[in-house]
Design goal:
alpha+beta, three-stranded antiparallel beta sheet, two-stranded parallel sheet, 8 helices, 5 strands
Length: about 210
């Protein structure tokens, strides 16, 4: 037994020499010897000893739904796509908001999106019914074809129904967009991801319309 005991004693002496020569490497923390003083922070490679909770790979950004164009509506927790197209149903631009955001406040924004061309008419559904929206359109020389809601106090006697039928092409554009599975099932949960998928799907729609024209 004298031989093994002498080897163990020699190994302990060498180990103490290594620990004394390299204190910055936190070798004591890796060995986890209860008889030795333990530092408050573990060595670099062994993150399991870290006593503070934080995301992996030193990501300090907080994750959540803020700023991700997500909101709860009657249809669930989703993202709403506000689409602008021409009279032929070709997509021009889109904007993403949470599902709880209404359509009417974004009428002016949709007019500013897309090519720098002033249209002759703006076709929109009842969700955009507002005096302010009609005033904005007329101030730009655009004829608003927006139906009035049933509870409107003083609706006009004339409404361009023949022109308003062209809004069906916008709904057809939405139908083509929802044929893409990742758009219809809302697979993406971030604003950047949804915008990328919607832009790619609309690009395919435009390419197909040019190819068949």
């Amino acid at each position: 037994m004298a031989g093994p005991a002498r080897r163990i004693r020699t190994l302990e002496q060498r180990l103490e020499a290594v620990l004394a020569a390299a204190p910055g490497r936190r070798v004591r923390a890796v060995l986890r010897d209860p008889g030795l003083p333990q530092p408050h922070r573990a060595s670099g490679p062994d993150v399991r000893f870290h006593r503070g909770a934080r995301p992996c790979f030193r990501h300090r950004r907080k994750r959540g739904q803020q700023g991700q164009a997500l909101g709860r509506s009657r249809g669930g927790f989703s993202t709403k796509i506000h689409l602008k197209s021409d009279f032929d149903g070709h997509p021009l631009a889109f904007h993403l908001t949470g599902g709880e955001v209404g359509d009417s406040p974004l009428f002016k924004l949709l007019l500013d999106l897309g090519p720098d061309v002033t249209p002759r008419a703006a076709l929109a559904d009842k969700g955009y019914d507002a005096k302010a929206n009609r005033a904005i359109a007329r101030a730009r020389g655009i004829a608003p074809a927006i139906p009035f809601k049933s509870n409107a106090k003083h609706p006009p006697a004339f409404f361009p129904k023949a022109l308003y039928r062209g809004r069906a092409r916008i709904e057809q554009c939405f139908g083509k967009l929802k044929r893409f599975k990742r758009v219809a099932l809302s697979c993406e949960k971030t604003e950047c991801g949804v915008a990328a998928i919607v832009a790619l799907a609309l690009s395919f729609i435009l390419i197909k319309s040019v190819h068949t024209a």
